[in-house]
Task: structure prediction
Amino acid sequence: MLAKTKSYRPSDKEPFMNERQRDYFREKLRAWRDDILKEAKETLLHLQEENQNHPDVADRASSETDRAIELRARDRQRKLVAKIEEALARIDGGTYGYCEETGEPIAIRRLEARPIATLSVEAQERHERRERIYRDE
Result:
């Protein structure tokens, strides 16, 4: 299936979220998820190897800081994997590519750039404006 979607690029000239587009985004999301999980395994191995006793206090502090940064990055990646899983479920459920707020199709270009998008550009901008207003109060 991956081979047939390799050279394919969705376009606005075809029916929105047809089977070919769904397959394309499904493969794109799975590949992204698999890359993240592979990186997470590598990080875990690195952290286990790095778990050595540093006699120098500065080395130990530096190592702990690096470890904290890697763990924060992994936590963000874990949340991203959850969003990817949600997007895959939306593909299976037939709601992928449609704005959660308006029900309108999300632009293909936006989905290409952010395949986990749940809002159209317009709805996302409204959401961000509301966030800014409430944050500034």
